[in-house]
């Protein structure tokens, strides 16, 4: 990877981590297509490692607001989803996995814009956790199902509940990916190199979060994510 590509990755990780802290998800949605475009062999391990650190910080900051019961049911659904996602990563060629990343980005944006507000019943939360497990482990984009089922939450409760789920879920995904041989020394090395960018995004989130228009910020993030997914898709056919 050249210096220009690494600089782009750093910028995306900073913005993705900022968004993750501000609204509870966004790191995978933004970073996955860019990393898949520049260094596809690093997907999904690098983002899962970075997400683990970022969500741990968010949970620490907002720990008093977490919905423990909802998080528990979501994690129960995540377990079979993680297994399925890890098997997909081990079985799919790089090109197909890249297209899956692009597809998950588009799906995530559609879900966010749809406006459907399901009740967070036990069944809905378990199913969302399962879908998030498959998507998050295979493509590092597991936020959309949970943001849909928990969108009735707001502020610290949304951030802490999402972060509690993703912290444990990311550890699950990382363990499953390691078992299938999808976590390499190279991916861990790049995660370490990108960690300062993630830390900067976390540090900027609180002071900037009070000044940012959340709706406009999400719209910009979605446009960037779709642009990345479109570019990634085109790259697979040229």
Automatic annotation (TrEMBL):
One Pfam family cited in the UniProt record for this chain: TauE
Phylogenetic lineage: Bacteria, Bacillati, Actinomycetota, Actinomycetes, Pseudonocardiales
Cellular location(s): Cell membrane
Family of this protein: Belongs to the 4-toluene sulfonate uptake permease (TSUP) (TC 2.A.102) family.
Organism (species): Prauserella flavalba
Identification of the protein by name: Probable membrane transporter protein
Predominant location: membrane
Keyword Transferase: no
GO cellular component terms given for this protein: plasma membrane
Keywords, alphabetical: Cell membrane, Membrane, Transmembrane, Transmembrane helix, Transport
Bilayer topology term: Multi-pass membrane protein
Keyword presence, Transmembrane: yes
Bilayer-spanning residue ranges: 6-30, 42-61, 73-91, 96-116, 122-143, 164-183, 189-208
InterPro entries: TM_pro_TauE-like (IPR002781), TSUP (IPR052017)
């Amino acid at each position: 990877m050249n210096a220009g590509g690494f600089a782009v990755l750093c910028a995306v990780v900073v913005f993705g981590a900022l968004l993750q802290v501000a609204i509870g998800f966004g790191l995978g949605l933004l970073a996955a297509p860019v990393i898949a475009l520049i260094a596809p062999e690093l997907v999904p391990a690098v983002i899962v490692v970075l997400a683990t650190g970022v969500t741990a910080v968010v949970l620490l900051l907002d720990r008093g607001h977490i919905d423990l019961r909802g998080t528990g049911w979501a994690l129960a659904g995540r377990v079979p989803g993680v297994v399925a996602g890890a098997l997909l990563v081990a079985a799919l060629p790089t090109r197909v996995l890249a297209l899956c990343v692009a597809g998950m980005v588009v799906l995530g944006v559609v879900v966010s814009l749809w406006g459907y507000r399901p009740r967070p019943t036990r069944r809905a939360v378990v199913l969302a956790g399962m879908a998030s497990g498959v998507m998050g482990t295979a493509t590092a984009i597991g936020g959309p199902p949970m943001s849909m089922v928990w969108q009735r939450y707001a502020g610290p409760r949304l951030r802490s509940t999402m972060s509690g789920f993703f912290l444990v879920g990311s550890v699950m995904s990382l363990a499953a990916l390691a078992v299938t041989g999808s976590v390499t020394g190279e991916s861990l090395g790049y995660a370490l190199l990108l960690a300062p960018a993630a830390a900067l995004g976390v540090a900027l989130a609180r002071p900037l979060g009070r000044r940012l228009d959340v709706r406009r910020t999400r719209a910009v993030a979605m446009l960037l994510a779709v642009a990345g997914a479109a570019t990634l898709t085109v790259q697979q056919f040229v």
